Amino acid sequence: MLVLLPPSEGKASSGRGAPLNLESLSLPGLTDARRAVLDELVELCAGDTEKAREVLGLSEGLRGEVAKNAELLSAGARPAGEIYTGVLYDALGLASLDPAAKRRAARSLLVFSGLWGALGVTDRIPSYRCSMGVKLPGLGALAAHWRAPMAEALPEAAGAGLVLDLRSAAYAAAWKPKGEVAGRTATVRVLHAPTRKVVSHFNKATKGRIVRALLSAGAAPAGPAELVVALRDLGYEVEAAAPGRGGKPWALDVLVDEVH
């Protein structure tokens, strides 16, 4: 099982350990594309602060994020699973998983990122600010920048099993499963059962809980149909829509009564 996650806008501070080593990150086929984004982002943020703030879409109160980006090459690095915070990651609770579940997380979770493309949760990175919606002056729109290298690297990472896609639309734009991979991909919406509406905060928290439950249970669904069974066994109410034709992802709705 490969689980595709969005990053979090909020991030923990960088560590005090060794700085970033690009060559050590998962998916080495993305290294050149990562270096291109990293180099331009550092140069941009080390130069005209106001231009950098405008390009990154940051408010005056987030000016410090520009200075943080300027130091990316020398800042200490921490595992990505510790850097990403926020609703989904709080609910996922990587640090409190048992050892077996942590090993499953290291093998199966990929976090998508405007700066790094996609990362494993044990990959060591500094804290940064650069969303997938950013358009850098030199490289252009980051989602477009990532499409070609992702198309090479991600099908291999997906292997032959289930792909559980929990990304938001901005990050899904960087790589869309195609063909046979798409046929064993499942996307998930979380709906407030009484109203049938998506609630953003609740959506993220429930997705984090779903991933935690699957990792803790050692569930290894072979495909979307088996995922539906696994989620129902874990106590979730799930409605599934199989695609009308091959080469399309399954669409799963998880219905929850309480919004918290």
Kindly describe this structure.
The protein has eleven helices and twelve strands. The protein has helices at residues 31-46, 49-56, 63-70, 80-83, 87-92, 99-108, 142-158, 169-172, 179-183, 200-217, 224-233, and strands at 2-5, 78-79, 109-113, 117-120, 124-125, 135-136, 140-141, 163-165, 185-192, 197-198, 237-241, 250-256. The mean pLDDT is 94. A hairpin with a 4-residue loop joins strand 9 and strand 10. The strands form three sheets. Strands 1, 3, 4, 8, 9, 10, 11 and 12 form an eight-stranded mixed β-sheet that branches. Helix 1 crosses helix 2 (49-56). The chain is 41% helix and 18% strand. With 260 residues, the protein is of the alpha/beta class.
